[in-house]
Design brief:
Length: 269
Amino acid sequence: MDGPMLVRRGAAGVLAAAVFGGLSTLAPVDERVRLTAARSETPAPEPKAPRPEPKPPPPDCTRVKCLALTFDDGPAESTGELLDILASRNVKATFFLIGENAAKYPGLVRREHEAGHEVADHSYTHADLGRASKKKIISELTRTQEAIRRASGVTPDLLRPPYGSTSERLTRIARRMGMAQILWTVDPLDWRHRDTEDIERRVLESVKPGHIVLLHDIHSTTVRAVPEIIDRLAAKGYVFVTVSELFGGKLAPGEEYTQSNSGEGQGLP
Ligand SMILES: [Zn+2]
């Protein structure tokens, strides 16, 4: 709409404005002039809706001592307590989820994702994918991807085959589905030794920069070991990142990974 049209007055002016300006309503021209003037003097206020905090850039794992804590087989009742522990220390982790548990506890999957953790695929029924048929593998993976997507809105691009059991067939399918296979470096056998101090000691004795630590958030003995593990390692300068961050986002579908070799302390620039 332009100026000359708005200074017309009376019924003819309204009609002219309606015809030439394509107005949707026949408001009196005087009123339109006033509204237009008011709008141009006071700009519309900023929308009040809260904006999400901009996500800080991930740590540069070629320069700092990065470590990826990973939690398998959940979510379960004990996962909520773990999420509180991680949030209180501002630590990010990766969760390899069992599809049927993700379907049972979608709220926990959503919480994991919204807190900035990485959610990933650990098969639907904790199946031995390395020995499974093509049909079984595809069913286990696609059902899990779907359960996680429904709960969190994201489709994982990381897979941890249960028992670390893989095969050429699984590798081919994972590649086609766009998923890297993530194994681990440090295994404190927390599922066998249900002893919090024992788990702490085994992790603290073994970790080095670039490592991936395998834990299970379905055991409360493990969840209770997490504060000490984080606090002791943070005091040594470790930074806790998701698996994708540990590799700087450079993970190839189908490939297997047990640790990152590009981190600080690995003898590389
Ligand atoms: Zn598992």
